[in-house]
Amino acid sequence: MSTGLLAVLSLLPIISVAVFLVLLRWPASRAMPICYLVALALALLVWQVPFVKVMAASFNGLVDAIELIYIIFGAILLLNTLQESGALRTIRKGFSDITPDRRIQVIIIAWLFGSFIEGSAGFGTPAAVVVPLMVGLGFPAMAAVVAGMIIQSTPVSFGALGTPMLTGVYTGLFGDAEVLAYSQSLGLEWLDFIAFIAAKVAILHAAAGTFIPLILVSCMTYFFGKNKSFAEGLKIWRFALFAALSMTIPYLLVAQFLGPEFPSLFGGLIGLAIVVTAARAGFLMPKDGDIWDFEDKDDWNPHWIGKFEIRETQIEGKSMKLAKAWLPYVIVAALLILTRLPQLPFSSMLRGEFSTFTLSNIFGTDIGQSIQPFYTPATLFVTVSIITYFIHGMGGKSYARAWKTSAKTIISAGAALVFTVPMVQVFLNSDGGAAGYDQMPIVLTEGVAALAGTAWPFFATFIGGLGAFVAGSNTVSNMMFSLFQFGVGERIAADPTWIVALQAVGGAAGNVICVHNVVAASAVVGLIGREGEIIRKTLPVFLYYALFTGSIGYGIVSFGKSGLLNIGFIIAATMVLTAIAIIIRHGSSEDTH
Fold this sequence. Notes:
Blueprint (H helix, E strand, L loop, with lengths): L2 H8 L1 H12 L4 H19 L4 H35 L1 H12 L3 H19 L4 H12 L4 H10 L8 H15 L3 H9 L4 H20 L2 H13 L6 H4 L2 H21 L5 H18 L41 H19 L5 H5 L6 E3 L9 E3 L5 H15 L4 H33 L11 H13 L3 H16 L2 H18 L4 H14 L5 H10 L6 H32 L4 H20 L7
Antiparallel strand pairs: 1-2
Helix pairs in contact: 1-20, 2-3, 2-25, 3-19, 4-7, 4-18, 4-19, 4-24, 5-16, 6-7, 6-9, 6-12, 6-14, 6-15, 7-8, 7-24, 8-12, 8-24, 8-25, 9-11, 9-22, 11-14, 11-23, 11-25, 12-14, 14-15, 16-18, 19-24, 20-21, 20-22, 21-22, 21-23, 21-25, 22-23, 23-25, 25-26
């Protein structure tokens, strides 16, 4: 069978997701079973993968889905615990004291706090933390999920202390003789070579990420505002760019000088300190008459509302201090860092021989995985929930209510995830069949590469995004495609390290539209069945991110031949100038302090 036809066939599971989930607007609980059957049929009938291997991949996906459901439950439990204790009420008042403007709040919570949590834990944890927090503060559930997905871009390549680079790219390239020879030609040891690529990844992310807070607030005011206006978000462009640079500048410096472990963590933390201090001082803040808020909840579109409801809970006779209300989140952040730093013993303890359960050779195949129940963020969320019971002086009935409500909410999330993740595993484990074809994502990528030729840098980010869209992980996307991307770079006589960097950036941006991340984030706030609507809202952000960074990448690798006036830099410059023109046109009518 020709490469082109195979590439088209391997695209069918992804097309089915787009058709049923995004175009036809089916809920994921209806769409994903069909998408799973499409992947199953291709694996069995075209790739001729043994039935037992397909079942092993499906079972492996089911195990992953259960772990994801556990994480969602932990996040919901922590949120409900904070509501029952009265902490959410205090946190809401704390943000209102800084500003009641929802545009400022979403930048602080989603962009800065979310980047810090991504740097600490990764793997979807920011959505599990910041999305319910925003709902608890009075954001519509869909607005919170969209915001939580949009920021899953810039910080992701350095999430979980650099895992997408140190595990994803490292594993994807390791052992290849040509890559090793290239790294030695640069005089770099292997880890230094990965850090060398990571520094380029940070440059691309910092360029694109500078506009993410502005895009974030503009999407919020357009999709969820009374006037459906991008301009209302653009009016705080000064604050949005200030908040972006407060994160991306330290992020970039850390990547260049300290390596790939800490850019997102330090970028988010430093940015949070700078921006909150500036906001309290009124720096670049909108005036009182220009405060932006959602309409009354009674006027919200019913599609925006999840099952989580805000109750003004307060322990009788007590007014909780702000520091005490925030303490559970501080404990979450501290435990995430302590249990992820390789220099400390806790990570090895939680991932050691006695705390790891291995599923190897499932059904006699080479498919398997390790389960680390004490290392997953879910266990951390549950632990902090229990701690909160004591430090907030909760009653037994209210805490039991938090558990009961969380258990009810999680049931609706399972139907979609038990088909979504197995579909991914069948897609990824489609090699080794009697037909002799590579796994579906590699076949698809080879088909695109054959058509793209020297224009490949424009496509490299989209391929990385495709991997994350399907697999739900920048790390897995980098594992799958890094070596392939390196090889394409060499074939088209482009610097292969820049092509791998584009892969990593695209893989991060793909989290913005990743199906099972959307399902998981939606489930945390009880917003089930609206996954397609969310992806339609975040898809333009992914397209911006992939095209902008791809254009910069093309400009860089073509600079030696074409100079500054090459198509890549021209497209990137046009996008920037267009953004400036839009800001001048629509963002100049609101005064700031």
